[in-house]
Amino acid sequence: MSEYNNIKKESLKPTLWHHYSSMKEVVEKGSKVIVSGNGAVIRDLEGKEYIDGLSMLWVVNAGHNRREIIEAMKEQMDLIGYASLFGGYSNAPAVLAASKLKEIAPAGLNRVFFVSGGSEAVETAIKMSRQYFQVKGQGGRYKVISRKEAYHGVTLGALSATGIRVYRQPFEPLVPGFHHVSAPYCYRCEFNKEPGSCNLECAEAIAQAIEWEGPKTVAAVILEPVMNALGAITPPEGYFRRVQEITRQYGVLLIIDEVVCAFGRIGAMFASEIFNIHPDMMVLAKGLTSGYAPLGAVLAKEELGQAFDDYMFIHGLTFGGHTLSTTATLKNIEVIQSEALAQKSMEMGSYLIQGLQTLRRYRTVGDIRGMGLLTAIEYVADKETRKKIPGNVRFAFKVEQLAWDRGLYLCRASVDKTYVAPPLVVSREQINRIIDILDESIGLAEKDFLG
């Protein structure tokens, strides 16, 4: 396409402000412009192919260029492009999508509030929990317990729940009332315990925080089933059972953030099914539409929804429940179910983890972990002591760049973690290629780092 020539020129200018990027680096090296994709493969401006090793930020679960989803959106566009959900009005795809989510979600999550994305969904759940307790005559309950190193989004309320210091610091002071406790990070346990021989101190930390803050002041606990930003952290056995006992004991709402984990990513439609979690609210986005249009949602228990039947939830988003987004959701869920992509994720995830284990031979590879097609590699400066990679080394970023040059898209590299989460339609051959590229890229990065 002729306009692509202009795109190439424009990508060398600081006009498009890239997210989470140093614009100086972008201008110096040029933007990596993605123009097409199919299945688990994407292509750049020059037509070079890459395996999408991260589902474009854990989003494209059903794969790129799904004609079923695209055609359904085209058909909807012929009817109406936008119809608001404000003031008692709605649109047909939003009504049907809400009904479908109620049908497939864990029992009891009967109320669906649509927004535009994950940060907005977390923001909505926090506001919903605060107003819920006001309606119930417990307006003193406004505090939220989250975890250190958790990622729940970057709008101001969601960022207050996020526990990653580097994301929080530039915007402090944040929203008051948020408290962060230790994560179930077994590789670097803050309590110096080993899995299977601990007393779930990381879960007990939630009870201690509630007691410290004052039980009558705490509205909610928000947790990811598998912590993503920290590197595919799966909880120890019994963790969520104990968390649920704690939240019920204190009458605190449990918000489960499934923005990344849901829609087959870790081997079930919802991670809550795997861990036997029964949340009061569930937060969804990303794989909800497989990225074909922006959408997020909060699913709430019937009891919580009923509390608002005589009161207005004073909240709304212009594009929440957009006709094209909810149309994409309906077809996306159909694809995931009809092709058993959750089961495939579990099978391909086992194959991926098995292949990644071969990378443990590198001196910088400290841990490899994950569930389904949500995996991560954590790098270290010293395996014996688990000494962290210095921040200025940007080791994982170097691995990402080396992998890109060899035909693998990873993106979202941190200082010391590489995230690997291809679309659920990925093949064994593509997984083999992912591992081969990582093998070569880590080897080169390590040689540069250790000499």
General description of the model:
It is a single chain. This protein is an alpha/beta fold. The protein folds into 2 domains: 32-65 and 340-450, Alpha-Beta Complex (Aspartate Aminotransferase, domain 1); 68-338, Type I PLP-dependent aspartate aminotransferase-like (Major domain) (Aspartate Aminotransferase, domain 2, 3-Layer(aba) Sandwich), CATH 3.40.640. Helices cover 39% and strands 16% of the residues. It is built from 16 helices and 15 strands. The strands form 3 sheets. Strands 4-10-9-8-7-5-6 form a 7-stranded mixed β-sheet, sandwiched between helices. Helix 4 (67-79) packs antiparallel against helix 13 (323-338), helix 5 runs parallel beside helix 13 and helix 14 runs parallel beside helix 16.
> Any idea what the shape is?
globular
Give the CATH H-level superfamily of the largest domain.
Type I PLP-dependent aspartate aminotransferase-like (Major domain)
CATH class of the largest domain: Alpha Beta
Please tell me the overall pLDDT. 95
Number of helical stretches of at least 4 residues:
16
Supply the helix-strand structural class: alpha/beta
Biggest sheet strand order reads 4-10-9-8-7-5-6
Radius of gyration: 22 Å
By CATH, the topology of the largest domain is Aspartate Aminotransferase, domain 2
Helix content: 25-40%
Distance between the termini: 45 Å
* Named CATH architecture of the largest domain: 3-Layer(aba) Sandwich
The stretches of 5 or more residues where confidence is low (pLDDT under 50) are none
The strand count comes to 15
